[in-house]
Amino acid sequence: xxxxxxxxxxxxxxxxxxxxxxxxxxxxxxxxxxxxxxxxxxxxxxxxxxxxxxxxxxxxxxxxxxxxxxxxxxxxxxxxxxxxxxxxxxxxxxxxxxxxxxxxxxxxxxxxxxxxxxxxxxxxxxxxxxxxxxxxxxxxxxxxxxxxxxxxxxxxxxxxxxxxxxxx
Length: 168
What we know:
This is K-box domain-containing protein. The chain is mostly helical. It has a domain at 83-137. It contains three helices and no strands. α2 (26-63) crosses α3 (68-142). It is elongated. The termini are far apart.
């Protein structure tokens, strides 16, 4: 019995510094699972395309058994269409990559412009404050002051004149 315990202790000591005892990076595992799912979808798509081509070729061979030339022509058309699809997919992938590069370039340019804006913002605020203060001073200088002044002048017929009667 003691020998079994010794063996277990030796095993545990041996395994102490190995990767078996390390914790698993969950984010990495999740990323690998997503990649696996994508690869499974791609593999499934390839298998479906292969099965369709096989069925088509089988029916084509059965149909064209009497006319080998027409069968070869149909097969070449299918192959040409597949090549065209692959070329079109490559063009689309190239366009996607170009757009990603453009997006990255614009993002960097945006960061530069934001930095410039942050650097210029205090100066613009000072200019706005100075302009507002200048406008207030100009408004004060341009105002006409209205003051009431009392005088002996009167508008219209005054009372100091005798009132004439209309009858006589």
